[in-house]
Write a structure and sequence with these properties.
Radius of gyration of chain B: 20 Å
Helix content of chain A: over 70%
Largest sheet of chain B: 2 strands, antiparallel
Strand content of chain A: under 5%
CATH topology of chain B: Arc Repressor Mutant, subunit A
Number of strands of chain A: 0
Distance between the termini of chain A: 44 Å
Order of helices and strands of chain B: HHHHEEH
Shape of chain B: extended
Order of helices and strands of chain A: HHHHHHH
Shape of chain A: globular
Number of domains of chain A: 1
Distance between the termini of chain B: 42 Å
Structural class of chain A: mainly alpha
Largest interface: A-B, 31 and 32 residues
Structural class of chain B: mainly alpha
Oligomer: heterodimer
Chain lengths: 187, 123
C-alpha cells in the first residue's frame, strides 16, 4: 500500500469511527433519555454533543465530516427523503463545534497538539459548541421553512447539549480520576 | 516531530493532552506531596487503633497551621481517602476514619515494601 493510500484509509477510518460513535451515542441517548425529548430535534439531555468537542479537538476537519455523516445517519429515513435541508441539518452538527473550537483556539491560543489545555477550556468549548449548534440548527430550520416558531427549542438545544456533554465529561473525568487514584494506591 | 503550534503532533499526543484536561475536572486527582504526607500520618495513627478527631489533627502539628491541616484533610476526604464521622454524643466532634480506598492504599504500599525486601534479600 502506498503512503497516499495509507493516509486515505486512515482518514476514512477516522471519519467512519466518529460517525459510528455518533450513532452509538445517539442510540444510547434514545435508550436512557427518551423522556427528555422536547421535539424530534431538541432534547433536554443530548449525550452525542460531548462527541462533537472531543472529536473536533482530536481530529479537526475529519471530525466535521464524521459528525456530519453520523448526524445524517441518525436523521429519520422519511426526513432524509422529504426534507430539503436534511443534508444541511446534518452539516450544521459538524460545522457548529468546528466554529466554536476555531474561535476559542484563536482567542486563547490553544495549540493544535492541545498541550496546556485546561479543564476550563473543555467546559467553555462545550458551552460554545452548544450555543453555536443551537444557532446553526435553528438557522437551517428557518431557511428551509421547517422552524415551527418554537423559541423554546433554541434553549432546549443549548441546555441539552451542555447537560449531555457535562454528563459524559463527568463520567470520563470520574473514571480517569479513580483509575489514577488506584494506580497511585498500587505504587 | 515538534512543529509550529503542534499541528503535526500524532493523535495520541492530542488524546493524552485532552484526557489530562478532562482528568483535571475530577475531584479524584492525584495527591499532592503535602496530602501524601498527611495520609502517611493518618495511616500511622489508624494503625494505633485509637480513635482521633479532626481537632486532634489540627492542633497536633507544630509546623503546620490548623487551617492548612484542615484544608489538606478535606482534600483527602474529597479524594475518597478519609471519612469524617460525626460523634453521636457531640456533633461538633468528628472522628477521622479510613475508607476502603485508604485500606487499599495501605495494603498495596505494604505489598510493595515486602516485595522490595524480598528482592533485596534474594540479591
Amino acid at each position: 500500500m502506498t503512503r497516499i493510500a495509507k493516509s486515505v484509509a486512515r482518514q476514512a477510518l477516522i471519519i467512519a469511527g466518529v460517525a459510528c460513535l455518533w450513532v452509538i451515542f445517539f442510540r444510547l441517548n434514545s435508550l436512557f433519555f427518551n423522556g427528555f425529548a422536547h421535539s424530534v430535534r431538541a432534547h433536554w439531555i443530548f449525550l452525542p454533543a460531548a462527541l462533537r468537542v472531543i472529536a473536533l479537538l482530536l481530529f479537526d476537519e475529519l471530525a466535521v465530516v464524521g459528525l456530519t455523516v453520523g448526524a445524517y445517519m441518525t436523521l429519520g429515513l422519511s426526513e432524509r427523503v422529504i426534507m430539503p435541508g436534511a443534508a444541511l441539518l446534518a452539516l450544521s452538527s459538524g460545522v457548529a463545534p468546528w466554529i466554536a473550537v476555531a474561535m476559542w483556539r484563536r482567542i486563547f491560543h490553544i495549540r493544535r497538539d492541545l498541550a496546556g489545555l485546561r479543564p476550563l477550556d473543555v467546559v467553555a468549548l462545550s458551552l460554545g459548541s452548544a450555543v453555536m449548534n443551537s444557532a446553526l440548527l435553528n438557522l437551517v430550520l428557518t431557511l428551509t421553512g421547517e422552524m415551527p416558531g418554537d423559541v423554546e427549542q433554541i434553549a432546549t438545544i443549548i441546555v441539552g447539549d451542555a447537560v449531555g456533554t457535562a454528563i459524559v465529561l463527568a463520567i470520563l473525568s470520574g473514571l480517569l480520576g479513580v483509575v489514577a487514584m488506584k494506580a497511585k494506591a498500587r505504587r | 516531530m515538534k512543529t509550529n503550534n503542534g499541528a503535526d503532533a500524532p493523535i495520541f499526543v492530542r488524546l493524552l493532552n485532552l484526557l489530562n484536561a478532562i482528568r483535571g475536572m475530577s475531584p479524584f486527582s492525584d495527591l499532592s506531596a503535602d496530602e501524601e504526607q498527611l495520609l502517611g500520618q493518618l495511616v500511622l495513627r489508624w494503625q494505633r487503633d485509637e480513635p482521633f478527631t479532626v481537632g486532634d489533627l489540627m492542633h497536633g502539628s507544630d509546623r503546620t497551621s490548623p487551617s492548612t491541616m484542615y484544608r489538606r484533610l478535606i482534600a483527602l476526604r474529597d479524594k475518597g481517602l478519609a471519612n469524617l464521622r460525626v460523634d453521636d454524643g457531640d456533633r461538633r466532634v468528628k472522628f477521622i476514619e479510613p475508607t476502603a480506598l485508604a485500606h487499599e492504599y495501605v495494603r498495596n504500599f505494604s505489598a510493595h515494601l515486602e516485595d522490595m525486601l524480598a528482592r533485596e534479600r534474594a540479591s
